[in-house]
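Re: that backbone. Tokens:
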């Protein structure tokens, strides 16, 4: 017996291989973990697009419901609601505050007629929708709700209570606010791109009001002059916060009433454009297929390796 044989017999006691079941379980866990990471990473990347798509679908449904309610309503009732809104405006001491610590303006106008409850005005559907605003230059069409609470502004634009209701008229100044940078969807994200000369329109109780932008400004929070009514002027100001995530200033886009072209009336009363093809769904399916393919390929390789 040589030296090598002696070493192998005295010190070379073979170690038994680890149980196969344990190796299989460890491998399965690792493969599942990788598949879950693929799906989770894809979900994080696709969430903004998916959330924006679902929000657009919901907003289109809200506007369509509003259209249907207006079409089905008694014309005399619509006329009565418009009269009440204008009476409210006549009784309103209008104004607005741009609080530096708030993400949205705050209204401080008060109606001198307590019988005119703000929440019951311009609400044909009973859901708080008073109309919708369309800004062609940035491809935005949002429902306009009563008030500017955080939950409201996650669903669309909000009318600033304390400013005039958006039914037009000399000496009125309505304020419409919306967020920027929400993952749930595009609101007033591109409002800073709207320029003087651009137009936007509001549809309220079947009436279409068109405004031409006369001024677009970034202002300090305490600069409220641009939100005050002007004698003889029919104004609407669109408001959002800037810069994103800081909200230290406000973008104000103020439009003055002009004659409404027939095309604007037809477009705002037409069915709302669909949200478009959900390309995020293609990415979701691709991620799912990639995760399944990874599991199948690694499982086959494991079987081949014994």
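Recovered sequence:
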């Amino acid at each position: 017996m040589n030296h090598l044989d002696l070493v192998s017999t005295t010190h070379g006691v073979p170690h038994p291989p680890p149980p196969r079941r344990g190796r299989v379980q460890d491998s399965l866990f690792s493969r599942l973990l990788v598949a879950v990471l693929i799906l989770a990473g894809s979900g994080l990347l696709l969430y903004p697009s998916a959330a924006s798509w679902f929000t657009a679908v919901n907003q289109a449904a809200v506007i369509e419901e509003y259209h249907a309610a207006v079409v089905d309503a008694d014309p005399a009732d619509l006329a009565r609601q418009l009269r009440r809104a204008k009476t409210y405006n006549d009784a309103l001491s209008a104004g607005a505050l741009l609080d530096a610590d708030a993400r949205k303006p705050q209204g401080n106008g008060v109606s001198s007629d307590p019988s005119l409850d703000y929440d019951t005005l311009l609400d044909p559907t009973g859901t708080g929708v008073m109309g919708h605003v369309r800004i062609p230059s940035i491809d935005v069409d949002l429902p306009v709700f009563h008030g500017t609470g955080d939950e409201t502004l996650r669903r669309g634009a909000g009318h600033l209570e304390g400013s005039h209701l958006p039914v037009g008229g000399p000496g009125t100044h309505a304020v419409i606010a919306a967020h920027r940078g929400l993952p749930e969807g595009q609101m007033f994200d591109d409002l800073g791109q709207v320029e003087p000369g651009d137009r936007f329109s509001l549809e309220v109780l079947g009436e279409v009001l068109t405004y031409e932008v006369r001024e677009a400004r970034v202002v300090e929070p305490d600069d409220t002059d641009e939100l005050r009514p002007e004698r003889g002027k029919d104004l609407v100001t669109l408001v959002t916060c800037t810069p994103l995530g800081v909200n230290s200033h406000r973008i104000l886009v103020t439009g003055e009433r002009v004659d409404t072209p027939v095309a604007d009336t037809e477009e705002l009363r037409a069915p709302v454009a669909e949200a478009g093809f959900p390309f995020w769904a293609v990415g979701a399916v691709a991620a799912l297929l990639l995760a399944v393919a990874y599991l199948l390929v690694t499982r086959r390789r494991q079987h081949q390796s014994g």
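Residues 76-272 form a domain with the Sortase; Chain: A; fold (CATH 2.40.260.10). Residues 6-10, 97-106 have pLDDT under 50 and may be disordered.
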